[in-house]
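Q: What would this chain look like folded?
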Amino acid sequence: MNDTVLLFHGIARTKKSMAKLAGFLSGYGYRVVNVGYPSTKFSISDLIDIIRPEIDDAVKAGDGRVHFVGYSMGGLVIRAFLTRYRPANLGRVVMVGTPNNGSQIADFLKNWPLYRKFYGPAGQQLITDQTAMTALFGTVDFELGIIAGNRTIDPVSSLIIGVRVPNDGKVSVESTRLDGAAAHIVIPANHTFLPVNKTMWSQTLSFLQDGRFTS
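A: My prediction, written as structure tokens:
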């Protein structure tokens, strides 16, 4: 296999958070590039220009298809990147716990000075009012699989989202959905621990290999 998988971490994380998934996918023959970026320092629009050289190098270095896997905000980075710089040999895309329709948690915290300072410009783009981001995120015209979690360990966050609304403690299941996606699956996982969840790993592998999730 000559396919490459590019991994994108979430906001306020580093590529170390995706290292175990990288090792797992490497074990199945993929060439994995774990992309790191200063997620709390720039807007998503600026971030995709920052990471473009590394992605261009990865695309040139391989001779197979290039797949994208993004956790949380990493999925939004992928959407923005593919809208502006889609590679000709694009393969499949997997989003994990991505707030495609924003997060009620971001809505609640967006004006708090500590939140604004810690999460930076990109943190302001995670809100549920996505009207300002229509030009940033294009339509889905590629093979996309979405994995959502429905386990929460944070009663406060769940109260903000809605006690009867299925969510992973940060993002509601409904917010992960995106028109045009080929597949959507919900697994018993918490948002914080999705990157190290072995069910997520196996479902990601399934979609990369076959374009579908296992039941």
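The chain is about 35% helix and 15% strand.
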